[in-house]
Design brief:
With about 575 residues, the protein is α+β, with helices and mostly antiparallel strands. Helices cover about 20% and strands about 25% of the residues. It has 10 helices and 30 strands. The protein has a 15-stranded mixed sheet that branches. Strands 1, 2, 18, 19, 21, 24 and 25 form a 7-stranded antiparallel sheet that branches. A two-stranded antiparallel ribbon has the order 5-6. Strand 27 and strand 28 form a beta hairpin. Helix 3 runs antiparallel to helix 4 and helix 5 packs parallel to helix 6. The radius of gyration is 24 Å and the shape is globular. The chain starts with 8 loop residues before the first strand and ends with a strand.
């Protein structure tokens, strides 16, 4: 094997010696092919049922057209005046008898708990019949008490559980008609940031937040009891509303809130959307206005894009807290009610057109219950949610890559994204006087063409690492700390650092010698070179390479309309992996 000069050095801040091995064509990754599949999806999209601009059939068709394997109909809670075809609930031609239940019938607005259960779910069943090789979930964009929005989904035999969730916990659902109803999930109450009897907003932000925590507890309880098969609570466009508001009006999310949610429902609340939808928003990518934390960076929110920021602080606790992307599709950027007014134009790509979340589904090839040719079984849906929860996933823009395998290895023991590797285990223990050497392997592949009809090319990949110091107690002053100063870019790889194998994968093998501290490792990659005007910053020197950070998307001129914004998005592509947690102590 052709070798490059080895580079060894001491990173004082992390106390780890590093050396770079030449990329090699290894057998790594073959076990993935045997044990499962990579599938792409989107869990945040809208139709006429709420504030989308197209029918549910149209959105389902677009999911399929752009190659998604799984998706969720996930729309706002509260109440709306039309069905999934855009027909008013009071249209007597379609609905001779007013179908609206609850205390809202005369208004013409149906509560979401009912439309989810009685109308949207039958539409999902119909779509499953029309797309039998796809996995389609029943979801909800939860209006979180005290906060912004959240993508949720429940796997169950019907939509009664997600209906109960929306009724009880959505801050926009003020219906009281089901209070006291006995269901398989307990007696229904209202815990939605409002007074249970009057439905007036609770004046204190912390009280509203407590109701949001209760929702995570409820979902966890249903899963533990086996009353639902599976579920997820993944927080959406998390920086958009800025900081949390302790007063009467709702705000965004601070780090302590994610810690609270994860503590309350570790199997239900396990991540957020680091890359928001609305990537063609005329005011800025993601629709982040003046209230947001510094907008987006390469289309990725500040909490994720900032090295050593909020996400890294969560990972520094060893939390299994993972990152995803979605379309948040409402209206495509090519559709304008008034072409002279950018504010009337759509600001979205179709689901799967630009952003995807790729999930590794374990056991798909080996488990006889997982029939890939007929994937609509609840068991198959569970496999996808289990894959999301495992963290063996990544998100990508513009199909910059369509496969990413990233794992840590010691001896015979391997840990993919989302997993933990203990260097002190019998498999992972070093044979060399207790030294804890580690191998990181990156394998990635780009498609021949993306949905903008060109071949995307990775310019460089950054390896990011930070220390794991353990859980932070809610009573600690550090519980509200949203930084991890130990996190650094420790290596950056360009085309000369990888070699393509016969399967079209590019492989990088990176050796870490004698790891002294427990650490996590994650990746980000882009098609952009450093010093790209208004996109990436100047090169920062490392002992073995150079790297650069994405610049704020606010530097882009957003005054020229959606076509210019869409073109800019297609030129600025990134992918982010989920982390691997490696324990040396």
């Amino acid at each position: 094997m052709k070798q490059r000069k080895k580079l060894g050095f001491w990173v004082i801040s992390m106390m780890v010696a590093l050396s770079l091995a030449v990329p090699s064509v290894a057998s790594s990754g073959e076990d993935y092919k045997k044990s499962g599949r990579w599938i792409s999806g989107d869990f945040h999209q809208h139709t006429y049922y709420t504030d989308g601009s197209t029918t549910i059939d149209f959105v389902m068709m677009k999911n399929n057209q752009f190659g998604l394997d799984w998706w969720a109909n996930s729309e706002h809670g509260g109440s709306r005046n039309r069905d999934g075809e855009g027909v008013s609930w009071l249209n007597t031609s379609k609905y001779p008898v007013n179908p609206i239940l609850g205390d809202n019938a005369a208004s013409g607005n149906m509560w979401r708990w009912q439309s989810l259960r009685d109308f949207a779910f039958p539409d999902i069943l119909d779509a499953r019949g029309r797309y039998p090789d796809k996995l389609i979930f029943s979801g909800l964009e939860w209006n979180v008490p005290g906060h912004e929005h959240c993508s949720t989904g429940i796997v169950a035999k019907d939509a009664s559980a997600i209906s109960a969730f929306e009724f009880q916990f959505d801050k926009s659902d003020t219906d009281k008609s089901r209070i006291g109803e006995v269901t398989p999930f307990g007696t229904l109450i209202k815990q939605n940031g409002r007074d249970p009897l009057t439905q007036a907003t609770k004046p204190l932000g912390l009280d509203r937040h407590s109701d949001a925590v209760a929702a995570c507890e409820w979902m966890q309880k249903q899963m533990n009891a086996g009353l639902i098969d599976n579920g997820w609570i993944v927080f959406a466009h998390i920086e958009r509303a800025g900081a949390f508001n302790t007063g009467s009006s709702d705000g965004g999310y601070n780090i302590e809130h994610f810690r609270d949610f994860n503590n309350a429902g570790p199997d239900a609340c396990f991540g957020f959307e680091g890359a928001p939808g609305h990537q063609v928003n005329y005011e800025g990518r993601g629709g982040f206005g003046s209230g947001a934390f510094s907008g987006t960076y390469g289309g990725v929110g500040f909490y994720t894009a900032k090295v050593g920021g909020l996400w890294d602080a969560l990972l520094g606790e060893g939390r299994r807290w993972f990152n995803y992307a979605s379309s948040d599709y409402h209206k495509h950027w090519t559709k304008c009610d008034d072409p002279t007014n950018f504010g009337t134009c759509g600001d979205d790509f179709y689901p799967g057109e630009y952003q995807k979340t790729w999930v590794h589904v374990e056991g798909a090839d080996k488990d006889p219950r997982f029939h890939w040719e007929s994937r609509q079984s609840r068991h198959s849906l569970n496999r996808v949610v289990d894959g999301l929860r495992s963290g063996n996933s990544f998100f990508v823009m513009g199909d910059l890559v369509d496969r990413l395998e990233f794992f840590a290895q010691k001896g015979w023991e391997k840990a993919p994204m989302g997993s933990e590797l203990d260097l002190n285990s019998s498999k992972g223990a070093s044979k060399n006087s207790g030294k804890k050497d580690l191998t990181l392997t990156i394998r990635f592949r780009s498609p021949l063409v993306n949905n903008n009809d060109y071949a995307p090319v990775v310019n460089h990949i950054d390896l990011i690492a930070g220390e794991i110091t353990g859980p932070i107690s809610p009573s600690s002053p550090d519980y509200t700390k949203a930084t991890n100063e130990s996190t650094k870019v420790i290596a950056s790889f360009k085309a000369g650092d990888w070699k393509q194998d016969v399967d079209g994968y590019n492989t990088i093998v990176y050796e870490i010698q004698d790891l002294k501290k427990s650490m996590y490792f994650r990746l980000r990659g882009t098609n952009l070179a450093c010093d790209t005007p208004k996109e990436t910053g100047p090169e920062v020197a490392l002992p073995s390479a150079e790297y650069c950070n994405p610049l704020a998307d606010s530097l882009i001129d957003t005054s020229k309309g959606p076509a210019v914004q869409a073109a800019a998005a297609w030129k600025d592509l990134w992918f982010y992996s989920n982390p691997i947690l490696v324990y040396a102590k």
